Amino acid sequence: MNIDLRIVVGFVLGGGLATVSALLFRATLNTTPKRAHYIAIVAAAAVIGAAAAVWPPSLVAAGALLAMIGVPAAAVDVVEHRVPDWLTAPLAVGVVITLVTAALITDSAPSLTMALVGAMVWGGVLLVSFLLTGDPGPGDVKLAPSLGMLLGWLGWKWLLTGIVGSYLLAALLAGLGLLVKRWSLRDGRIPLAPPMLAATILSATLAA
Predict the structure, then answer these.
(1) Fewer Cβ in 10 A, N or C end of the chain?
(2) Residues 6+ apart with CB under 8 A from 193
(3) Is it the case that residue 191 has pLDDT exceeding 90?
């Protein structure tokens, strides 16, 4: 299958996973979702599916999990400034299972080791920041290990790219938020899960 066809198939499959994403989002949100929320979820899941189609085969299943679970987690963060535990926990378990399985099939023990290191590094960075400053929120801290595992599998370069990229995207989001007055400025906080997810997708796709 050539790469263009893989991207098309991934886009379609990602759009299909958006149905599950939307259901998880609706079940988690404390308020009534708007049509714009569903449109954004479908678009994001489809884009992640298209991106994951060009990733190494060992990471495609993890990409599907990001489309299915990571997207609604990020969407809830945008709407309610929280990342639910009942989404981050299964995402972490799912990523662990897919990467351990990939390591056993492809005999990639070094990659699995780096994945675990990636989880500890990104999770550790946010945990220290949370303990010292209270930011980011605990949900972001719990999301970080899943994303760190995926990028750690690809190596230090892409792990660091994802971490730094998430903060750069967050800064850009903050700037845009000031322009459109979308984010609350009372506590100076912006949703970090979407930049974290986007930076992970971009880093993994560039690595591929």
Answers:
(1) N
(2) 73, 74, 77, 78, 83, 139, 140, 143
(3) no
